[in-house]
Each structure stands twice: as structure tokens, then as C-alpha cells.
Design brief:
This protein has helices spanning about 10-30, 35-50, 55-75, 80-95, 100-115, 120-140, 145-165, 170-195. The chain is an all-alpha fold. The chain folds into 2 domains: about 1-75, no CATH class; about 80-199, Alpha Horseshoe (Serine Threonine Protein Phosphatase 5, Tetratricopeptide repeat), CATH 1.25.40. Helix 1 (about 10-30) runs antiparallel to helix 2 (about 35-50), helix 3 packs antiparallel against helix 4 and helix 4 (about 80-95) runs antiparallel to helix 5 (about 100-115).
Length: about 200
């Protein structure tokens, strides 16, 4: 797929073309009666392209439906849901629905630790995404519960050394986790110093 560059007219045109192609493929698949899991993959590609084209409300609505259908088909304790939740959380964060993103990610981290293990790449991604959503929400609306900040710090602190060992210190996920952990600790330190929160 073409690399997306914001405000690059050629890239946007290419993405729009890919969207038309995937929508046509989905229409054909539905006509042919292919199995639901295949349709969900096609729908996920379409939602991702919509998000990259800043059709955020449409992308988020489709990704919600995909997640609901996957849960209905496979149940919540299924590995196939994990990537869908990463995609959905990206769209929630992009739409500044931080509270929902935090809640969804926090619940899914525990599921992922059980289903694929605490040292799996997807589990690390979920932890990193969750711990990013908390300060992002604080920056956007100047509000975060002290429990969220402390839980995000603990979740990331528990995972970052494992990520460094398993993925390596130069892996982008490890780097993001370290940056967000430093950011979280600065925020918590500031709140404690100001005396404006119960932390």
C-alpha cells in the first residue's frame, strides 16, 4: 500500500483509489457469499483507508461494527480481536474519545496477557497504546483521574523492561514506551508538587 504523507495530493489520490478498489472487492465478496471472517478483513482495510483520508466518523463507525461482529463470531477471548482493538483504539484516540480508548485498552491488556502472553508483541503494543492515551487525554482536555495516571505508569513500568529485553532497546515500540513512561512520570511529579491532586 502507498505510504501516506499528510497533504501530499498524490498520496491522497492513491489512497482514494485504493479505497475504491477495496470497496469494489468487498461488494464482489458479498455477492459471492464468502465467509464472514474474510469480509471482516476487507472491511478493516476499508476502515483503515477511511481513517487515513480523515473520514474519521465513517472509519470509527465501521471499526466499531467490525469489533462487534468479531466478538459475536469468535468471543472476546480470541487472538483475532487484538489487532482490531488496536485499530479501533487508534481511531478513538484520533477522534479524542480518550475515555473509551482507555477503558477498551485496559480491559484488552488483561485479555492479551492471557491469550498470547505478557511478553507478546501485541501485548506490548496494547500497553504502549494505553499508556499513551492517558496523557494524551490530559493534554487534550486537561483532565485525567489520578488512578488512570498511576495505573498507566504501573502498566508501562511493568512492561517496558520486558519489551527492552524481548524486542530490543531500538525497537520503535520499546522507544515509544520509554518516552511515554518518562512523560507520565513527569506529569505525576508535577501533580504531586502542585498539590492539586490526590496522587
Amino acid at each position: 500500500m502507498v505510504r501516506y504523507v499528510k497533504n501530499d495530493g498524490r498520496a491522497v489520490a492513491a489512497l482514494a483509489h485504493f479505497l475504491d478498489v477495496f470497496e469494489s472487492i468487498l461488494s464482489t465478496q458479498m455477492r459471492l457469499g464468502v465467509k464472514e471472517s474474510v469480509l471482516l478483513t476487507s472491511k478493516g482495510n476499508i476502515a483503515s483507508l477511511m481513517s487515513k483520508l480523515d473520514r474519521n466518523d465513517e472509519a470509527l463507525a465501521m471499526q466499531r461494527r467490525i469489533y462487534a461482529q468479531e466478538v459475536s463470531l469468535f468471543g472476546k477471548q480470541d487472538e483475532r480481536n487484538l489487532q482490531t482493538i488496536l485499530n479501533l483504539s487508534d481511531m478513538l484516540i484520533k477522534n479524542q474519545d480518550f475515555a473509551e480508548a482507555r477503558s477498551l485498552l485496559r480491559e484488552t491488556i488483561d485479555v492479551s496477557r492471557t491469550v498470547v502472553g505478557p511478553e507478546n508483541y501485541v501485548t506490548f503494543k496494547l500497553c504502549a497504546k494505553y499508556s499513551h492515551a492517558v496523557p494524551a487525554g490530559l493534554q487534550a482536555n486537561r483532565h485525567a483521574e489520578s488512578g488512570d495516571l498511576l495505573d498507566a505508569e504501573k502498566t508501562l513500568g511493568d512492561s517496558v523492561e520486558k519489551a527492552r529485553r524481548v524486542l530490543g532497546p531500538k525497537n520503535p515500540v520499546t522507544g515509544d514506551m520509554l518516552s511515554d513512561l518518562t512523560r507520565l512520570r513527569k506529569i505525576i511529579g508535577h501533580v504531586r508538587a502542585s498539590g492539586k491532586g490526590p496522587i
